[in-house]
Amino acid sequence: MSPRPPGADLPDHPDRLWSAAEPKSSYDVVIVGGGGHGLATAYYLARNHGITNVAVLERGWLAGGNMARNTTIIRSNYLWDESAGIYEHALKLWEGLEEELDYPLLFSQRGVLNLAHSLQDVRDSVRRVEANRLNGVDAEWLDPRQVKEVCPIVEISPDVRYPVMGATFQPRAGIAKHDYVAWGFARAAAALGVEFIENCEVTGLRVSDGRVTGVDTTRGSIAAGRVALCAAGHTSVVAATAGIDLPLQSHPLQALVSELLEPVHPTVVMSNAVHVYVSQAHKGELVMGAGIDAANSYRQRGAFHIIERQMAAALELFPIFARAHVLRTWGGVVDVTPDASPIVGLSPVDGLYLNCGWGTGGFKATPGVGWCFAHTVAHDEPHPLAAPFSLDRFVTGALVDEHGAAAVAH
Amino acid sequence: MLLIPCPWCGPREEAEFHYGGQAHVAYPEDPAALSDEEWARYLFFRDNPKGVFAERWSHSAGCRRWFNALRDTATNRIHGVYRVGEPRPVAS
Lengths: 410, 92
Known about the structure:
- The complex is a heterodimer of chains A (410) and B (92).
- Chain A has 410 residues and is α/β, with parallel strands linked by helices.
- Chain A has 9 helices and 18 strands.
- Chain A folds into 2 domains: 183 residues, FAD/NAD(P)-binding domain (3-Layer(bba) Sandwich); 153 residues, D-Amino Acid Oxidase, Chain A, domain 2, CATH 3.30.9.
- By secondary structure, chain B is mainly beta.
- Chain B has a single domain, classed as Folate-binding fold (2-Layer Sandwich).
- In chain B, a hairpin with a 3-residue loop joins strand 1 and strand 2.
- Chain B: It holds the Pfam family SoxD.
């Protein structure tokens, strides 16, 4: 009997969810960036507005940037009306997204606790709970004993450096499987005719008489009627090729996972004061996010002392984690605005649209911003929920200051 | 973690330093004379290059003095440091 060659018994490759396209010479809409926001925007352009001659250009592989690196937290408990509008719109879409995309997303509404560690934290948190309720966002204020009921592994002893004095709780918040979200949107958008072009970095925006005409890429020039930027940490670099300055600073943001553990953590816990946020993935890893590195950088790795501080904070909140081992750490490049709110809308160049500045918290908004940004691109006019997040708010002064609700733990 | 050559103390770990953002941003001579656009630019807009960036650092756990550095944000390589008041050197 002759030996079987290696791999002879492997199953066939499963059906591909989308096919990689060769770039055409022109499209009605080119989306720069094949992350969650780019894919969701493409899907809603096709689904809601019938615009299907669309290409999503991705410099690496689809959803391989921040979409592959985030900590997958979904919530809508922001302070201001403007934020509640867009994040709650997103959360409502999340609640129907698996059926909408006909794809499993492991969307799990396990709730989020935002811990308060000082009297000022308590005051700010209670205020945010009341603001959330006025905006129709589910929110409760929990005392330490109730926190312990929701998440038994949280240390609520008053004797620690940053005692837990209570927490806000949003029961409808949760997590989803980030890769599945990207694949679900890509598959659904591909079925409607959207093309995905990977390994295609946009090196320049083509502008003529104040109007965008296309993009230069590492795979040639592509003409476009409209160009929608979803380039996250590299938005400044792309926009600069059209002479547009943006109030963005790019920083590394790190996260890490532990080895696989039995289920110990039933919810999502975030703490601004001690700079850590933790959940447990379905597979069993503890997923933890850190704060951004202070210095600007486009390197997808952060400094070790940031991780060290994050671990110290996590261990104080969750003494049980002392025996867990870190499996891997990584970083992504996030674009941060001065008011911790995104920039979504028109740009100084006709036909060029901005979606950037999501900083450390863009994942949760994926379906909501896709919906609103697609509307903005299709109608050449900001969607009402995106309108407050215009670029010119930095001139008018109408900032949407979410440092309290977003800050490091976005 | 960066190894940052303080111009007074020599190379030290990044954890000893405090970041100060873009260097050479001067306070407007006559702030009241600025238009809203100009004020917004001063207040909110900073360079964000993927490449050499002139930035401020404070050696807050050492000599406590501010200085400037030229660092490449694509590689994190520090091309040089210089004291406050000195002109920006040409990046090597």
